[in-house]
Amino acid sequence: MYYVINYEKLACNPELEFGKICDFIGIEYDEKVFDFHEKKDDILKEYPTGYVKTYHTSLLQKINTSKIGVWKNQLSPLQVKLMDSTAGKTAEQAGYNREYKNFNLWVNILALPGRSYAALLYVATKIVDSFPYKIRTAILIKGPLVLAKIYLSLFNRKKLKELNDVIIKRK
Prior knowledge:
The chain is mostly helical. The protein has helices at 7-12, 14-25, 40-46, 49-55, 71-74, 77-93, 105-128, 133-155, 157-170.
C-alpha cells in the first residue's frame, strides 16, 4: 500500500495534505510539525552547517510555493525531453502532464546514464532497506552524495567540480 503525494498540492495547501497523510498512516495530526523552520538553531547544532546550507536550506524556511514550475525556466528543451523520456510515464500516472511523448534514438541514448543511475539507486535502496536501522541511516545520510559524486565523475566532471567547490565553501 502506498500514498501518492503531489508536490504542488502539498506546497499550496500543506495542512490539508499533511492531514490526509496522517489519516492514511493512522497517526494523529499535529500542527506543530509546521514549526520546523523555527528550529534553525537546533538544526545547525545537530548537523554540519555546510551540509545544511548545501542540501537542506529549505528546512530553515516556511513552506512556500516559490519552486513550483521553476523547471520551466531553468531546463532546456533537451533536458525536459530527457526527463520525459526517463520518468514521463510515471509522472503521468501521478497526474502530471508530459511535455513530450515521442523520442528519437538520440534522446534515448542521452537518457541512458540517468536511467542507469535511477536503476542503481532503486537496487541500492532495496538492499539498504534490509539493513539494521543504524547502518541504514548512516548509508542514507552519506550515500546519495557518494553516488552523485560517482555519477558526476563519470558523466559531468565540470558539475562535480562545482559541487565540490560549494561543499568546501560552506564548511
